[in-house]
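Memo subject: From amino acid sequence to discrete backbone structure tokens
Action wanted: Derive the backbone structure tokens from the amino acid sequence.
How to read it: Take the token row as a discrete description of the fold.
Attached in line: The record itself begins immediately under this heading.
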Amino acid sequence: MAIKDFTENGKNCQETKIDKITLINVIFGAIFTVLEFAFKYFKLLLLILIVFIVIYVLYKSYCSPVFYSKELSDVGFDHLPKGKDRSFHVIRAQKSRRFGSKLPPPYPNGWFSLVESRDLKVGGVVAVNALGLNLCVYRGEDGTARVVDAYCPHLGANLAVGGNVYGNCIECPFHLWKFGENGQCVSIPDTNTVPKGISIKTHPSMEIDGSVWIWYDAEGRPPLWTVDESNETKNWGYRGRNEFYVNAHIQEIPENGADVAHLNAVHSASLLTDVGHKYQFLKNIIGHHNWSAEWSKGEADHLAQIKIAHQYIIMKYDVFPIDVTAHQIGPAHVRLYFSCPLGPMIIIQSVTPVTPLLQKVVHRVYTPNYNAILGAALVIMEAYQFTRDVAIWNNKRYVSSPAYVKSDKNIRAFRTWFSQFYSETSLSMRDAMQSPYDW
């Protein structure tokens, strides 16, 4: 009996070994067949790959705008330990960070972007928390976007969470009260006559440059300026956008444009690779960016302008010159006009304070149809450059009285210009941090 079992076990081991050898032979045979096919039809496969890439690039450029997004913890925290506790380390780093003293008020007066126009359909409702406010943004059947306070004056339900649009009215999800274009309550179920004085606060708004904007003013004044839609955003194609969340004071973001010295310090390394930045002898071979800029006030008080000249240098030759003219419109709206050998482009930048020290920064790209591919690429390339700034903003402190040098004259001038957007009644940073909302 023992001999019989031993013989059967031997046969099983032998069969197992044969099965493994067969499996290995099959795998190698399949690999060999695939490689043989690839070599035999290499040109055909390469052509198919190229056609696929071209179709994908054309699709993303013309039919499906590029979207690139980075959350707060995605940029500027590579120095922290990795692993499952990374979020804890990020939170601890932010809590222990000193943001500086004498910070300006967190919410300057001006226009601020709330919602992407393409994301707000007719009948659509969006909840937005920004500028220390809880807001409801909705689009009526007439196509107009409106901004109102989020809370119903009846029992405090949030109109933007479960609320519906009827005509040009917003309906409360709790008791179905309806509020008209001017904020007045126009309908209450089972009530023949609506009592006077029941209303929600409406906010001045406009819809330009691919976004719905709200006018914020600490003194409650009507808009001190308005902005016309740019011809480029009306007539060119939308190629996509990138979005970042930045842990800094809002003033830091536009101030970057006036900080000419930082351009060559932070943005000289090639977008293709930073090897040339690490190994200087490769810098001229790989190429690097060279920048010059000048900041100046605009014709109106709320306007400013930055002229930027860009060169991409390879072996002392400028292979891709770009001229940029940036028009700053108030504290949080910038139009950047690009001129390069491949055609014109425009980037619309908006900066919105989500909380006192958290900014949502969006860049929207528009180009003519003939250079749509370049526009789609610009969404990503601009995001890579902007990431370098975000990494610094997410870890720096605000210095109210810098040790200026001669090259910082634009920063001093910018701060003087930007101070006009603060009022005596502006909410202080201390008060905003202690009670960011009215709860």
In short: The longest strand covers residues 343-355. The chain has three domains: 15-64, 68-101+231-434, 110-216. The two ends are 85 Å apart (CA to CA).
